[in-house]
Amino acid sequence: MADGLQNLIADYIKKAPDYENRALMQVAAELLKAQAQRLEQAEGEVDGRTWDHRKW
Q1: Which residues, 6+ apart, have CB-to-CB distance to 9 below 8 Å?
Q2: Residue 29 belongs to what domain range?
Q3: pLDDT of residue 3
Q4: Is residue 55 part of a domain?
Q5: pLDDT by residue (tens digit) across 5-56?
Q6: Is 33 domain-assigned?
Q7: Is residue 56 part of a domain?
Q8: What is the predicted pLDDT for the residue at 54?
Q9: Looking at residue 39, what DSSP letter applies?
Q10: CB–CB of 41/32 below 8 Å?
């Protein structure tokens, strides 16, 4: 889903009529990328905590 949204944002950036809209969409793309990275890190942390044999 994030890839599809990323593509939509990229398409809009190319077609945006003015600087303000392009800038807003660029920030939205950066936010989406940061959120995806945080989600991946959180999933890794959950996996790490789940497989910690000391906490079984």
Answers
A1: 25, 28, 29, 32
A2: 2-49
A3: 84
A4: no
A5: 999 999 999 999 999 999 999 999 999 999 999 998 988 887 777 786 776 6
A6: yes
A7: no
A8: 76
A9: H
A10: no
